[in-house]
C-alpha cells in the first residue's frame, strides 16, 4: 500500500499537469485563431507557417497576453517544483 503523502502527491501532480495542459491548449488555440483572422484579412483561408509563427511571437510580446504568460510561467514553475518534491518523498529505487 502506498503512503498517504505519495497518494496526495500523485493527485496534486495530476491535477496541476491537467491545468498546465489546459492553459497551454488555450494559449495555442488563441494564437491559431489570431493567425487565421490575419490570413482571412489578407484574403487567404488558412494561415501560412510564417503567419502562425508571427502570431505566436506577437503573443510573446503583446501586453494584453501578459497575464496568460505569467500564469503559464507560474504553472510551469509549480509543476517543476512538485516534481522535485516528488524526488524527496518517493523511494529512490526498488527493494
Architecture overview:
By secondary structure, the protein is an all-alpha fold. It has one domain (21-89). The chain contains 3 helices and no strands. It has helices at 4-41, 49-61, 66-89. The longest helix is centred in the first third of the chain and has 38 residues, at 4-41.
What would a concise description of this structure say?
The protein is mainly α. 79% of the residues lie in helices and 0% in strands.
Uncertain parts: none
So what's the oligomer here?
single chain
Radius of gyration: 19 Å
Total strand segments: 0
Shape: elongated
Our count of helices gives 3
> Which structural class do you get from the secondary structure elements?
mainly alpha
The helix content, as a percent range, equals over 70%
Mean pLDDT: 87
Measured between the Cα atoms of the first and last residue, the distance is 14 Å
**How many individual domains?**
1
SSE succession:
HHH
**How can the largest sheet be summarized?**
none
- Strand percentage, roughly? under 5%
Please give the structural blueprint.
Layout lengths: L3 H38 L7 H13 L4 H24 L6
Helix pairs in contact: 1-2, 1-3
Output the keywords.
95 residues; mainly alpha; 3 helices; 79% helix; 0% strand
